[in-house]
Design a protein that fits this description.
With about 500 residues, this protein is an alpha/beta fold. It has a domain of about 140 residues: Orthogonal Bundle (Isoleucyl-tRNA Synthetase, Domain 1), CATH 1.10.730. Helix content is about 50%, strand content about 20%. It has 19 helices and 19 strands. Strands 1, 2, 3, 4, 8, 13 and 14 form a seven-stranded parallel sheet that branches. A four-stranded antiparallel sheet has the order 6-5-7-9. It has a three-stranded antiparallel sheet with strand order 10-12-11. Helix 16 runs antiparallel to helix 17.
Length: about 500
């Protein structure tokens, strides 16, 4: 059986989940559900990044220990599974000493054995927000390009990884397509960086400065830095490095990852540093990195300081999981920045969920549930027009192409074109004016369209697809149709 291993990036636990991580989780969930439905053996991993000075500071501000703080926040991220109807298989936490730490230690030791780890005193420009060192040319007027705060001059003794040694090979792997970067603009961005050559990176911090993390094997005065710690989750989460070799079966089955799905701000870590670490460790590199953009709020980047952060959980409580999934998949182009406003959300909901899908489903099921439309399975199959079947096949083909290319917004668009096709068919054929076999033929076509929509909808809006499917029952030789509930009541 074909295998497919997909990961989200792991969320940093210094604050509650925001809508940007919800977008990434939903995009990954669509891919996982879509390929499972195609008969592929899928493994879907997500998790939390729980070490570093920002976590320690956030815990202290709340009057909690780091462990208490990350346990609490990790649960909030785990709760997204139910809130957003996610289908991940496992949730990895970097503070997990049993599941995660052994893999990190194993990677460190492989890099050290290769002669790719060395110690030196380093002076550089450091962003506390990113917990990362930057070169002057990477900064924008001396400030971090992400947090817009001036970088501090820091001097300390750290361990370094010889990333520069692997720069050329990473570049070749990306150029050859062995490591696929989607979209093309992000591929060009990382190739431009690689052309200049990657520099060696600091992979530890002094324990007296950052006391919350994984100690360097054989040197407790240093803690392993985020690059090796956080990135290793993609293999620790499937058992790499664990004592019980049974746990490594998942790694042997699914690695290398088919897709790492990430935000554009961490591209260089996933397409530069991570492949370098894997090459040094003698492990296969991932096959693809899919990169999404930011969600803006009314044209502005969301931030706690501005107070414009949108909670996905609050949105779900107000509108339902599938309405949130739909907006994020339809409104936000998969690889670009997109804008959230409550008005845009309500417009999509009323215009396309209530008036579109909800209305079409209700019309068909109401018309088909009448006594004069009862039909056998044989009649149902015989009555469906070849032209309708071709229209559905075309839509399925388009959706597959769009999903494979990570253009989920276009896949949803193709599906909504089928709903429009169905609506036009109802209006043109006017089944309420027909009788007998003529009416049955039209209703067979409409039921066929609705069932096809339901099947195509399942990876995107799983709860809604399930509700519609329950109203169309196939009992051997007879079909049973029920009206069902109002899927998306109009918002006033």
């Amino acid at each position: 059986m074909k295998k497919f291993y997909i990961t989200t990036s792991i969320a940093y636990t210094n604050a509650a989940p925001h809508i940007g991580f919800a977008l990434e989780s939903i995009q990954a969930d669509v891919l996982a559900r879509y390929y499972r439905a195609q008969g592929v053996d899928v493994y879907f991993l997500t998790g939390t990044d729980e070490h570093g000075s920002k976590i320690a500071q956030a815990a202290e501000a709340k009057g909690k220990t780091e462990k208490e703080f990350v346990d609490e926040i990790a649960e909030e991220f785990k709760d997204l599974k139910k809130a957003l109807n996610l289908s991940w298989d496992d949730f990895i936490r970097t503070s997990d000493k049993k599941k995660h730490w052994p893999a990190v230690n194993a990677i460190w030791e492989k890099l050290a054995a290769q002669g790719d780890i060395y110690k030196k005193t380093y002076e550089g420009l450091y962003c506390t927000g990113c917990e990362a060192f930057y070169t002057e040319k990477e900064l924008e007027e001396g400030s971090c390009p992400i947090h817009r705060k001036p970088a501090e001059q820091v001097k300390e003794e750290n361990y370094f990884f010889k990333l520069s040694k692997y720069s050329k090979e990473i570049e070749e792997r990306i150029k050859s397509g062995e490591l696929r970067i989607v979209p093309e603009s992000r591929k060009n961005e990382i190739l431009s960086l690689l052309k200049e050559g990657l520099t060696d990176i600091s992979v530890s911090r002094p324990a007296d400065k950052v006391h919350w993390g994984i100690p360097v094997p054989g040197d407790a005065s240093q803690l392993i830095y985020v690059w090796i710690d956080a990135l290793t989750n993609y293999i620790s989460g499937i058992g790499y490095g664990r004592e019980d070799k049974k746990d490594e079966e998942l790694y042997n089955t699914y690695w290398p990852a088919d897709v790492h799905l990430i935000g554009k701000d961490i591209l260089r870590f996933h397409a530069g540093i991570w492949p370098g670490i894997l090459l040094a460790a003698g492990l296969p590199i991932p096959k693809s990195v899919y990169v999404h953009g930011y969600i803006l709020h009314d044209g502005q980047k969301m931030s706690k300081s501005v107070g414009n952060v949108v909670s996905p959980v609050e949105l779900v409580e107000k509108y339902g999981a599938d309405a949130v999934r739909y907006f994020l998949l339809r409104e936000i182009a998969s690889t670009e920045d997109g804008d959230y406003t409550e008005q845009k959300f309500r417009d999509r909901y009323n215009g396309e969920l209530a008036n579109g899908l909800g209305n079409f489903s209700a019309r068909v099921l109401t018309l088909a549930s009448g006594e004069d439309v009862v039909m056998t399975e044989d009649e149902y199959e015989a009555f469906v027009d070849e032209s309708v079947k071709h229209r559905i096949k075309d839509a399925e083909r388009t959706i597959k192409e769009k999903v494979d290319a990570f253009r989920l917004h276009e896949a949803v668009g193709a599906l909504w074109e089928v709903i429009t096709f169905g609506d036009l068919y109802v209006n043109e054929m006017k089944p309420w004016k027909l009788e007998g076999e003529e009416k049955k033929k039209v209703m067979a076509n409409l039921l066929y369209i609705l069932e096809a929509i339901t099947n195509m909808l399942a990876p995107f809006l799983p709860e809604t697809a399930e509700k519609i499917a329950k109203n169309i029952q196939h009992h051997g030789k007879k079909m049973e149709i029920t009206k069902g509930e109002n899927l998306f009541p109009r918002l006033q």
